[in-house]
Predict the 3D structure of the following.
Amino acid sequence: MPIDSRPWRRIIRVGAAAICAATLVLGQGTPASATSRTVSFEFLHTLETKPFPLKYGGKSGLLITKCIASPAKNLKVTLWRSRVGLDTAMGSQTINCKAKQRAEFLQAPLNGSYYFELKKIEDGELFKGTAVISY
């Protein structure tokens, strides 16, 4: 009398499907290269951050954690790509200079060195605070 192997095949298929699903879920986490650093700033008109590496398709952002400006005024955040010759502006956002304000830039078009430029109106008022740069 032959042994029916169909139940074992079904168990093997279900197990293989579970392993594939787990691999897909675990692969959706934050990329290993995600980095952040806290920076302090103090400026009257314009400030450039230190450059940071960004890979193709990577995202970057600047989160204000503290800002001394009364009242909270606009701050233009521009993402620049460093190049030999003239640097290239990749986009800009205007946020208020106050805690929890964020500027995010998605999908870097090329691998390279990038930096943020913070700019405000030239009114003689000092902007001072801290922010977290993520890349």
Observations:
- The longest helix spans residues 6-26.
